[in-house]
Amino acid sequence: MNPVPHTARQHWIGVLARARRSELQPHEAALRDVEYQLIRAPEIGMTLVRGRMGGNGAPFNLGEMSVTRCVVRLADGRTGYSYLAGRDKVHAELAALADAHLQGGQQGHWLEQIITPLAEAQAQRQARKAADTAASKVEFFTLVRGEN
Amino acid sequence: MHAQLLQPAFSDPVLDAQRGFRAALKALAGPGVVQTLHAAPSLEGLAPATYALCLALLDVDTPLWLAPSFDTPGIRANLAFHCGCPLTARRKDARFALLGAADLLDLSGFELGNERYPDQSCTLLVQLERLDGGATLHWRGPGIEHSNPVSLPLAEGFWRERDRRNVFPLGLDLLLSAGHDLIGLPRSTRIAQERA
Fold first, then answer.
1. What is the ipTM of this complex?
2. Which has fewest Cβ within 10 Å: A41, A122, A123, B24?
3. Which residues in A lie closer than 8 A to residue B10 (C-beta atoms)?
4. In chain B, where are the structural domains located?
5. Interface residue B1 vs chain A (CB under 8 A)
């Protein structure tokens, strides 16, 4: 099966999907500098998002969102997949290419060049957002009125 | 493993699928008239017309039965990837079946539909070497004004198998393909042997 551990690939596919297109574009030339064909050209579709109340209740349909997906194959047979939220076909193609490169022999190089910086930037954004949210957090408490 | 077998499918997924669907409709509406799909991709073991029909007609709701000659890793992987159709080993469960000429001598087990829902029958996609060169038969019935001479290279046994399962409105519809061409043979078409 896949030579790459499952969880590591899940991690980088997630990072690539959450990245902004502007963050991937500096790497565009390097990513495209390889012979490849589109097995599934970038295409936009809808997917149903389901949720569970409180994380463990009965599943309910939250709503639909647009998703773009793409599959590429490099000349040596490696295939790269991408699924990402939104309608950005260029982003989908670059992410699929990155996934294909990351499964090859130069994995360390690509991890260092693309995934690590992107993951850090995302962690920072996440932390900033969490901090902003935390600053506006309101603690509710109830004053107990005594009987006497 | 499977991923290495994947090939690109339709170059324009929406319009090419519509062309394939249109060709299938016309083939069944005018039995015996050759329809041609020009810009169809091919796959090892699947002719362009056959593959185009698969890509246009199969999806997650249509279990497919593969004849042993088509049950290759390449065909399995590409149909699973591009169509997402489940593959079934039981003929009874199949909504579509992919067969070669040799498989036509035994059509047992395929769903023929029922009196209430004759449309729930299994549609057979048959890949042949060519669509002519056999004995000329005259096809009559809905969609044919008088009669339509067709010379498919099919064995006598197939027509008997078909007749045995053709209890209108139940029966099997066939789409026969070779290269880029296809011919429809719906259950409503009556076959008469030419008298020399």
1. 0.74
2. A123
3. none
4. 2-193
5. yes
